[in-house]
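Hey,
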Amino acid sequence: MLKKPQVIYPFLFAVYPLLSFFSHNIQELKIEIIINPLIIITISGIILYITISLLLKDKYKAGILISVLSFFFFSFGHIANLLKQEYLAKFKLFEIGNLFPTWAVLLIITVFFTVRSNKNFRKITSFLNIISIVLVAIPVFHVSSVYLERKPPMETIKKISPNPVNVSPDMPDIYYIIVERYPSSRSFKNFYQYDNSEFTAFLEKNGFYIAKDSRANYLITCLSLASSLNMVYLDELIKDIDKESVDNMSLYNLIENSKIAPYLKSKGYKYVHIGSNSAGTIKSDLADFSYTYKDSLLLNEFSAKFIEMTMIFPIIRTLNIIPDLEYRNAHRVLITDQIINMEKLTKIEGPKFVFAHLFLTHSPYVFDRSGNAVTEEEENSRYFKENFINQLVFANTKYQQLIETILANSKKDPVIIFQSDEGPYFERLWKSHYYFDLHQATDDELREKSWIMNAYHLPGRAKDKLYPSITPVNTFRLIFNLYFGENFPLLPDKTYAHESFDKPYKLFEVTEKVKVY
């Protein structure tokens, strides 16, 4: 007598969409981010399976029903994206607003006929088990191969051995404020036809030196911050990484385990970390005080994006049950909370080193010039540069308030670095950012991507050490020389482009193309 096959496939079909989504984004993610959603989907599947099996008294039919539910539930977002394509959007039947009720009706009909069916689903169980195992094996194999190739956290470089000088307890606080994709004044003028002089005048009035010819050393956050936080170019640090690798985790390790914070902590500084939702700067285990947005594996960007692809999302969105699960709302809350919490943390007794990765000038563009919420439809109706400038006007207001708060709450005039890690996307990169080959970029496009805001507030030290073209790699070399008696030579100010976002380790120098003469 043949042994009855076990019903395995519905649980594998249920977790496959999550595993596939994780696999496609593995270069940005750590394995722990998938654990909670994986547990939730698995437990939900088991509960549903047991319930339906008891109701129908047929475990094989229950397996088919769970698989049907999984297909409709998890494929909704993919169908919605397909219907946004121009060749389908012109047909009234395929309008996105009609999708949910249509999809729900199709689901109900399919479930109804499955329940009423007299077929013996036991016969195809073994076949479906094999199909589900093969299907799940594909993303599991890809994830495993990436993790096997992934280097352990790198010893970034030899940790600095501080010069044996007595550091006074009233040394100035140091604020390293990274403002995402904030252009230089020259970039505003040349590429956006926008005059940002009101904000730069505010900075200069408050003692900032603006390096007007500054450029990013690298044109993507993970490379740029790995360099500036370790005060070196990355040649040596990434030489053993396969140039074809799509895995950014080695760069995130360089950011999280940089040498800046440990050096300052050895000098008696507290480390305050203002986290973002960007891998590498979400949190820091080195921090004495840390703000992490939604410190939960259930409500992170990965989970929110995944939920947006399911049938539950339009219900959540319509009823506004959990606003932060919508990425635009979550982004709005993130960039508001970052400023609020940074203002609070300025009151921590010093000396302190504050690292903040702020997203007020990062897409999506969810604020207008006055700080009112912008819907996705409103954003899509305007040219992306208009959206960028609108949100930047609001960002300037918040940044000005933040700097005034820092200065007002500091017992001693603080060191403040207000610096962008990269310039904004140029138009062609905006349209196809992941696969665009920067070898194909024009000189003007590279300038738009590399010319950055870079402003320094250095109290009590000679500003003649600063110069217009100083780049982020030299920021802390200069500060450690000025305030801690170090003798770091300043490095040549170079700029490197990466081939594409999925080839971050294939670098080529573009210094001469983007240098300001």
